[in-house]
Amino acid sequence: MARSIVFTTKAGKPPAAYSQAVKAAGLVFVSGTAPVDPATGVFKGTTVQEQTAQCLENIKAILDEAGSSMDKIVSVTVVLADEDDFAGMNEEWLKWFPANPPARQGAKLPARIPGLKISIAAIAEA
Fold first, then answer.
1. How large is the average pLDDT for residues 51-75?
2. N or C: which end of the chain has fewer CB within 10 A?
3. CB burial class (10 A; 0-12, 13-18, 19+) of residue 66?
4. Half-sphere exposure for 109 (CA within 13 Å, toward CB)
């Protein structure tokens, strides 16, 4: 399988420095995805729950474009601006993955971006 870039207008546009996702070796590598509303280009939601939902909506759209799906996610990295938002993120997370969730790790955002509470990266089977 050749390496290919994945892009959809149904998810927030990434900065020029990276792709929404790369499909290679039978996997889809979704870049850190912010809670950007694809219609407006700005962060959607003021709570970590709302922003988590938008990140996951964007990941779903990217995976759909790649021919994959949310149930094929094998690993996720959740990056929070504030560790106190962990419980709220997990509250929304469980709505998306109520059973057999993917492997997951967490980290803290290395820089403050006004309004950004969370970013999520994922790896899924193609």
1. 98
2. N
3. buried
4. 20
Domain count for the chain, please give it: 1
Is residue 1 predicted with pLDDT exceeding 90?
no
Per-residue confidence band for 15, with pLDDT thresholds at 50, 70 and 90: confident
> Any idea what the CATH number is for the domain that residue 49 is in?
3.30.1330.40
Q: How many residues does the chain have?
A: 126
Are 27 and 53 in contact by the 8 Å Cβ rule? The answer is: no
What range does the domain containing 114 cover? 4-125
CA distance 29 to 123: 5
d(CA 10, CA 8): 5
pTM, two decimal places: 0.96
Residue 19 has which token pair?
A: 């792709």
What would the DSSP string read from start to end of 109-121? -SS--TT--EEEE
